[in-house]
């Protein structure tokens, strides 16, 4: 295992860890706002780390830049969707944003 | 010339359907004519080709199989093309009254109608297992869309049931195709045989494909979807469903059985298929006997009549092939005629419950006439195409001393007579209250003429059989050719 | 591809799950799920059983499956539209009762 | 020119009535005048054409129309002596019945349907008479079933529908047996035309059992229409049909078609010798003999006039079968000539029953008291028919019975004579009381349901009955004339027994 | 080794998700699971050496199908807000044996086919051989357009048919029904659209172009473009309309018509039908198909037959 591979592995594992934490948060936190909190922050960081890990692994600037773009897009999407969900949750005044039939 | 004509036969209706999506409604009438009327003339060219030189291959895009897709025009596919073109044209005459181009629903109906037409043409030509899958899906989706086009709850439910079963059937077929490709790496159904040993794996794969097709062709006991679908669809749609759509799946089974697996020893399976056919005949007829609605009776009659097509498998001879093909032709015309007549009756009376049809023959003599005439052929009574088909079946059975099939075919006409005469008797019964003639809702005479033409066609088929039978005899599968 | 047999088994299980779902589900959307799962199983199978050519996967089944995926989504789209309409007309998204009102005329 | 004539005339004979039927359908209910004209015109034309064909045959030609249905399988219409006999009978009786029916059905509903199918029915009968092979015969035989059904259910009552169902159940089942037998037979011999004396003898050794079974199948298939016991049950039920239909069913079309078919089967397919050789003549003979007696006994028990006539038909038609089953030239002549004679006599009886029923509302025999005084002409006709049925000379029936008896003695089957005598006694005992009531009993104060009709209507009704009666008398009195049915039948039979 | 583990993880998730989909308590969660299953399946395709399929599965199988299911679910909920159907039908006793039997059969057949001395597919060999004469690097695109063009053409026809049939069964008044998020005009949404829309168009064009040599092609590109359209519908930039517009209609059938006409035109040059005159035709047809696929999918999503632009968009 070369150094770069080791680095990549480290980054990927860390990213997965953040994803895992975010997912646990999504499942365990009590209301919509907290869940968003877990989703956006932890997952975006996880995505960032995984992209970075993959970029190191690929050792190719073109791929690395595409991966960077992916991260940016992920950020953008997460931002807007979190914003919309939060607005909805606030307007509804409810802490449960699940669809009507769920649980 | 033949290549060009065949390509146009498939693509003209397809392109016209696409045109209907783009062009404004005022063009609809013209487009319908463009999409349908030239077809019989185009078909003359391939006909001459087949008559002169026998089978004809169209290598699409110039890439022969196994690389590309091939169309095979042989006598049997030519027969199917003629049947499709002829029946669709006559039913379209009727449809131009039930879905007049000036009305709103016409924009929904006609594109699907033409796609259905084109796809069946493509299907009967196709010699490629996967291409057949795609075309079958096209046929199915267009047909189901047409069933539901009027949005009646019963039709919607029937369409949904049909759709689910058809999708499942397609999957079974596709599974078989996948396995066969995995074994041979070939998809051309006339080439597969060269690369395939009849091992358990391939036989099972073929069986899966055939079961899928049996579902699509509603062979007992896989018929459950058919009566509701055919019984609740709009008249012209019922007509084409019973006359063509279920038949093309049977046609594919024939192809797989006699061409792809022509050399294999499938005797016990053939007997099974025959028994299914026999059960279909009995079950469909008995079920038709207890129905209370005219269209349901006709639909169950289709279940029964499809059974005859299964008898080809155990009998498997030149005569049987001619018989089954002739049955295809005569039943196609007769059943289309019946559904069209029933549609006119339904439209005029507002119901097709038998209890409300007493004395209807006085009010709608043309439609009752068409119904009765077509019934003669369905019952297999002479002189009619149905009789001739039955005769050929009997001869085929006698030739092989298959007495069981012989008695079945001979006696099964009685069952058909039982349910059809029940209908006719009701129509001749004196009405308890006087029927009020509602001129406004009456179907125009030309709509009845379409039904009568088809019914007369079924009768005339009892006399002018030689061209069809010669054609079929010229296109026998390799194993059966004398 | 040494993992073909593995995926074939996966396809078999998925197919079984699909069949199970198709039988036990009453709701039409669930039936569509099940049919789609069965379809996916068959797609996997088609690609997996085709032998590789010089170590590379055979492109033909992939192309066929690509076509199959588009057909599946088309059929699903239509089925969903049909289901919505059926629900609007009958208040049911099942096929359970065929003798309900509206089966006549 | 001659060839064309010979080719097309048989077809035209069939087509002319079929076309009439179709035109009547198309013309619709309202155009009564057109319908009447068409009907009469076609009926007259038909008689003329039969005469034309008769002349052609007399001149030694054989008009034959032939097309191929399936390669190797022909539809053949051919005029030979036997077919001409039946065709003449049908054509003449159709003309008479048409006149009668037009008057009878005046003002009743659904006349277009009635006359349309009436014509089609005659077309089918013509086809049967001209059929040149068994397949053609079968085709028209089934067509006849189809076209008579609407006539049976014509009144549209529940009873009519029910008896229509019985009718179909019997005839269509018979058709199935016929079809199986036909297919089987063609399997052995290949498609073959009717030839006097039959052509099956050469296959006797190889296929004896098959030929026997086939014979039974075909005989049962035809026996259904010929109403041979126990296949007769549909016939009395079919009495619900209007009187002209009953007349036609009993005298010409359906029942006679069955009997005619049996004649063809025995004489032209198997040949009398082979039938005897296969041992099939005796069962047929026994069935016929039993039916004769059974029908007569049943007739005796009926109180409904039309029912009594119906059972009389059951009995009488079996005379024809008896004749051919006995074998030998004389009995065969008797059977074939009875084909004509029974037709003429039975049609008189049904015409008269129809007149009594329609004009006076008479349905039961006890209501016939004194009808002779009220309707002398019709009653006279009825008497002629009844006496003929009993077999009293000089009415036609006597001739047939004479030949049958003589023929039976000639082949050493004397017991048949006993059957004939018993039957005659029975005939007398169910007809003579009726005649007594008609002529000797006093008329009631009021008829059950008397209706007023126009003179011309009565004239047409009674007139057609009288024409039939005259014909029945004529063929009996002039039996020796070279063109009489008897001479004709003799000529036919000479071919079978050279 | 790692590969096998990865395969096992993917397969286990697939099976677990499938079980969740068919037997989960909530329909809504069923849809979510279905989508996740589609994405997992994309991984499986990648593992099977089928990147084209992976992309198609992610975009079409998971994305589009999921979106269609979501919108159908939403309509059901609108009619009956507490739409929570009972999970199972009645005939459940035989279900398990049948399912096991079916699965077993498929497994047996599949294993039989895999393990029995797999010959290279003749068709596949022919494709790879023929492709050397072409300017195409992606054999799948070659199969789809050059060698088995009829399949692809009819597949487009299937999509068109599904669309026509879906419109045919939709109530007339529902054709004007618009699906949007609750407040689509917040500034953030505008900003998102301003970035995403050009980007997706760019990506789809890239996929289209890449398709000739690398994984990608008209279907994947069309699906991505459709996603963009779905976004526009959801954010009320365009909305459903029952007014048919010629341009929209032309877009729907562009793929079918251009492929058919070019395919037929081959006969004028004396070539067999469906023979393409050159690479330009491949690009042209793919572009038209991409547009048609995208537009049709958006229309299916919106449940309508035409679209209109909103003024305040």
Characterise the protein shown here:
Chain A is mainly alpha-helical. Chain A contains three helices and no strands. The C terminus of chain A is likely disordered. Chain B is mainly α and 482 residues long. Chain B has a domain of 212 residues. Chain B is globular. The mean pLDDT of chain B is 90. Chain C has 105 residues and is mainly alpha-helical. Chain C contains three helices and no strands. In chain C, helix 1 runs antiparallel to helix 2 and helix 2 packs antiparallel against helix 3. The radius of gyration of chain C is 18 Å and the shape is elongated. The C terminus of chain C is likely disordered. The chains are: A mainly alpha (103), B mainly alpha (482), C mainly alpha (105), D mainly alpha (498), E mainly alpha (313). Chains in contact: A-E, B-C, B-D, B-E, C-E. Chains C and E meet through helix 1, helix 2 and helix 3 of C and helix 1, helix 2, helix 3, helix 4 and helix 5 of E.
Q: What keyword list fits this structure?
A:
heteropentamer, A: 103 residues, mainly alpha, 3 helices, 0% strand, elongated, disordered C terminus, C: 105 residues, Helix Hairpins
Number of strands of chain C: 0
Q: What about the largest sheet of chain C?
A: none
Oligomer description: heteropentamer
Strand content of chain C: under 5%
Largest interface: C-E, 79 and 101 residues
Q: Estimate the mean pLDDT confidence of chain A.
A: 82
Low-pLDDT runs of 5+ residues of chain C are: 98-105
Q: Approximately how much helix is present in the residues of chain A? A: over 70%
Q: Which overall shape of chain A is indicated by the principal axes computed on the Cα atoms?
A: elongated
Domain module count of chain C: 1
User: Given the helix and strand composition of chain A, which structural class is it?
Assistant: mainly alpha
Structural class of chain C: mainly alpha
Number of domains of chain A: 1
The CATH first-level class of chain C comes to Mainly Alpha
The second-level CATH architecture of chain C is Orthogonal Bundle
The run of helices and strands of chain C is HHH
Number of helices of chain A: 3
CATH topology-level fold name of chain C: Helix Hairpins
Report how far the terminal alpha carbons of chain A are from each other: 48 Å
Distance between the termini of chain C: 58 Å
């Amino acid at each position: 295992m070369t150094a770069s591979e080791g680095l990549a592995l480290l980054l990927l594992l860390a990213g997965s860890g953040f994803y895992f934490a975010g997912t646990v948060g999504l499942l365990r936190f009590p209301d919509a706002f907290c869940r968003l909190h877990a989703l956006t922050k932890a997952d975006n960081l996880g995505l960032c780390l995984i992209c970075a890990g993959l970029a190191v692994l690929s050792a190719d600037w073109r791929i690395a830049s595409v991966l960077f773009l992916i991260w940016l897009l992920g950020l953008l999407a997460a931002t807007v969707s979190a914003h919309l969900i939060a607005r909805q949750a606030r307007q509804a005044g409810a802490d449960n944003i699940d669809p009507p039939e769920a649980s | 010339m033949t290549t060009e004509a065949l390509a146009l036969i498939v693509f003209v209706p397809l392109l016209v359907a696409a045109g209907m999506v783009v062009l404004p409604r005022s063009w609809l009438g013209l487009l319908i004519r463009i999409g349908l009327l030239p077809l019989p003339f185009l078909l003359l060219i391939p006909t001459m080709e087949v008559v002169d030189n026998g089978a004809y291959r169209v290598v699409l895009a110039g890439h022969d199989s196994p690389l590309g897709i091939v169309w095979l025009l042989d006598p049997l596919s030519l027969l199917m093309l003629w049947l499709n073109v002829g029946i669709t044209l006559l039913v379209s005459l009727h449809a131009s009254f039930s879905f007049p181009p000036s009305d709103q629903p016409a924009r929904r109906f006609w594109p699907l109608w033409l796609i259905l037409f084109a796809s069946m043409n493509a299907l009967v030509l196709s010699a490629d297992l996967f291409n057949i899958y795609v075309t079958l899906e096209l046929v199915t989706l267009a047909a189901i869309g047409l069933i539901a086009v009027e949005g009646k709850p019963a039709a919607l439910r029937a369409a949904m049931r049909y759709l689910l079963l058809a999708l499942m059937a397609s999957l079974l077929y596709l599974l078989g195709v996948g396995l066969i490709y995995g074994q041979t790496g070939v998809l051309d159904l006339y080439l597969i045989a060269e690369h395939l040993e009849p091992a358990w794996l391939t036989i099972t794969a073929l069986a899966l494909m055939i079961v899928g097709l049996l579902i699509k062709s509603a062979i007992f006991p896989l018929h459950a979807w058919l009566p509701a679908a055919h019984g609740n669809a709009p008249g012209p749609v019922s007509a084409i469903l019973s006359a063509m759509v279920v038949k093309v799946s049977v046609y594919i089974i024939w192809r797989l059985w006699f061409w792809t697996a022509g050399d294999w020893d499938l005797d016990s399976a053939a007997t099974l298929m025959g028994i299914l056919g026999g059960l279909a005949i009995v079950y469909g007829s008995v079920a038709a006997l207890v129905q209370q609605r005219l269209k349901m009776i006709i639909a169950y009659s289709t279940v029964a009549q499809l059974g005859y097509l299964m008898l080809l498998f155990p009998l498997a001879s030149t005569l049987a092939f001619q018989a089954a093909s002739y049955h295809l032709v005569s039943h196609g015309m007769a059943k289309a005629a019946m559904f069209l007549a029933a549609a006119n009756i339904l439209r005029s009376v507002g119901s097709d419950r038998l209890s409300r049809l007493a004395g209807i023959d006085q009010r709608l003599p043309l439609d009752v006439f068409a119904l009765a005439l077509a019934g003669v052929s369905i019952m297999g009574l002479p002189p009619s195409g149905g009789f001739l088909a039955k005769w050929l079946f009997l001869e085929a059975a006698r030739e092989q001393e298959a007495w069981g099939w012989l008695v079945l075919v001979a006696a099964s006409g009685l069952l058909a007579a039982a349910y059809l005469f029940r209908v006719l008797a009701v129509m001749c019964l004196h009405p308890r209250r006087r029927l009020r003639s509602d001129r406004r809702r009456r179907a125009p005479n030309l709509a009845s003429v379409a039904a009568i033409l088809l019914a007369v066609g079924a009768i005339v088929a009892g006399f002018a059989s030689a061209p069809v039978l010669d054609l079929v005899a010229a296109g026998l599968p390799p194993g059966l050719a004398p | 591809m040494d993992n073909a047999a593995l995926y074939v088994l996966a396809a078999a299980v998925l197919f079984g799950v699909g069949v199970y779902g198709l039988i036990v589900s009453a709701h039409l959307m669930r039936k569509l799920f099940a049919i789609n799962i069965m379809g996916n199983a068959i797609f996997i199978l088609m690609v997996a059983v085709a032998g590789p050519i010089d170590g590379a996967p055979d492109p033909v089944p992939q192309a066929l499956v690509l076509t199959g995926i588009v057909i599946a989504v088309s059929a699903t789209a239509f089925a969903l539209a049909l289901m919505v309409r059926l629900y609007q007309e009958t208040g049911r998204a099942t096929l359970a009762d065929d003798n309900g009102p509206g089966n006549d005329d | 020119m001659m060839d064309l004539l010979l080719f097309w005339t048989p077809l035209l004979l069939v087509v002319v009535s079929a076309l009439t039927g179709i035109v009547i359908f198309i013309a619709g209910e309202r155009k009564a005048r057109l319908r009447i004209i068409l009907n009469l015109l076609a009926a007259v034309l038909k008689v003329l054409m039969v005469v034309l064909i008769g002349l052609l045959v007399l001149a030694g030609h054989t008009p034959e129309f032939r097309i191929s249905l399936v390669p190797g399988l022909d539809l053949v219409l051919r005029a030979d002596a036997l077919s001409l006999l039946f065709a003449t009978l049908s054509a003449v009786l159709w003309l008479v019945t048409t006149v009668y029916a037009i008057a009878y059905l005046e003002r009743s509903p659904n006349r277009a349907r009635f006359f349309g199918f009436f014509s089609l029915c005659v077309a089918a009968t013509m086809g049967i008479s001209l059929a040149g092979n068994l397949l053609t015969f079968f085709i028209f035989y089934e067509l006849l079933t189809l076209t008579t059904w609407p006539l049976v259910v014509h009144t549209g009552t529940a009873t009519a529908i029910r008896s229509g169902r019985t009718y179909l159940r019997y005839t269509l089942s018979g058709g199935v047996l016929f079809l199986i037998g036909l297919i089987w037979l063609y399997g052995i011999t290949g498609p073959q035309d009717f030839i006097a004396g039959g052509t099956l003898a050469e296959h006797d050794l190889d296929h004896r059992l098959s030929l026997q079974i086939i014979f039974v199948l075909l005989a049962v298939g035809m026996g259904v229409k010929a109403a041979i016991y126990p296949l007769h049950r549909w016939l009395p039920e079919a009495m619900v049909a209007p009187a002209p239909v009953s007349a036609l069913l009993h005298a010409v079309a359906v029942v006679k078609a069955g009997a005619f078919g049996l004649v063809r089967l025995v004489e032209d397919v198997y040949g009398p010798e082979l039938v005897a050789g296969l041992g099939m003549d005796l069962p047929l003979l026994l069935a016929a003999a039993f039916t004769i007696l059974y029908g007569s006994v049943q007739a005796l028990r009926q109180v409904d006039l039309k029912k009594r006539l119906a059972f009389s038909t059951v009995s009488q038609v079996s005379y024809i079968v008896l004749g051919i089953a006995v074998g030998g030239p004389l009995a065969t002549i008797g059977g074939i000539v009875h084909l004509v004679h029974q037709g003429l006599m039975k049609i008189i009886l049904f015409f008269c029953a129809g007149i009594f029923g329609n004009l006076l509302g008479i349905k039961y025999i006890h209501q016939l008291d004194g009808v002779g005084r009220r309707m002398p002409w019709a009653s006279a006709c009825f008497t002629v028919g009844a006496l003929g049925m009993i077999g009293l000379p000089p009415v036609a029936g006597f001739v047939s019975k004479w030949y049958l008896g003589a023929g039976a003695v000639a082949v050493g089957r004397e017991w048949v004579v006993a059957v004939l005598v018993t039957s005659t006694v029975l005939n007398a005992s169910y007809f003579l009381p009726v005649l007594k009531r008609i002529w000797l009993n006093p008329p009631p104060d009021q008829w059950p349901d008397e209706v007023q009709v126009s003179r011309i209507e009565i004239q047409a009704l009674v007139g057609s009955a009288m024409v039939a009666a005259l014909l029945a008398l004529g063929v009996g009195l002039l039996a020796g004339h070279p063109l009489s049915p008897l001479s004709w039948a003799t000529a036919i039979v000479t071919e079978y027994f050279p | 080794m790692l590969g096998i583990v990865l395969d096992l993880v993917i397969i286990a998730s697939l099976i677990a998700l499938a079980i969740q989909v068919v037997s989960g308590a909530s329909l809504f969660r069923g849809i979510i699971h279905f989508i996740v299953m589609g994405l997992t399946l994309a991984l499986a395709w990648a593992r099977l050496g089928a990147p084209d399929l992976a992309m198609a599965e992610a975009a079409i199988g998971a994305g589009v199908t999921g979106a269609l299911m979501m919108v159908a679910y939403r309509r059901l909920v609108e009619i009956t807000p507490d739409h929570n159907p009972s999970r199972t039908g009645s005939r459940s006793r035989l279900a398990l044996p049948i399912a096991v039997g079916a699965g077993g059969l498929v497994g047996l057949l599949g294993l039989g086919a895999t393990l029995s001395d797999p010959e290279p597919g003749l068709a596949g060999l022919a494709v790879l051989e023929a492709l050397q004469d072409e300017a195409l690097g992606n054999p799948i695109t070659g199969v789809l357009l050059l060698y088995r063009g009829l399949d692809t053409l009819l597949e487009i026809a299937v999509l068109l048919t599904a669309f026509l049939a879906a419109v045919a069964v939709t109530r007339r008044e529902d054709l004007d029904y618009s699906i949007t998020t609750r407040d689509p005009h917040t500034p953030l949404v505008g900003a998102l659209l301003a970035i995403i829309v050009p980007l997706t168009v760019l990506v789809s064009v890239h996929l289209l172009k890449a398709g000739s040599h690398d994984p990608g092609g008209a279907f994947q590109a069309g699906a991505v473009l459709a996603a963009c359209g779905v976004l526009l519908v959801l954010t009320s930039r365009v909305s459903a309309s029952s007014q048919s517009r010629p341009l929209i209609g032309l877009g729907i059938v562009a793929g079918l018509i251009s492929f058919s006409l070019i395919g037929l035109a081959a006969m004028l040059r004396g070539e067999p039908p469906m023979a393409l005159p050159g690479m330009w035709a491949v690009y042209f047809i793919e572009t038209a198909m991409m547009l048609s696929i995208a537009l049709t999918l958006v229309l299916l999503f919106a449940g309508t037959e035409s679209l209109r632009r909103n003024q305040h968009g």
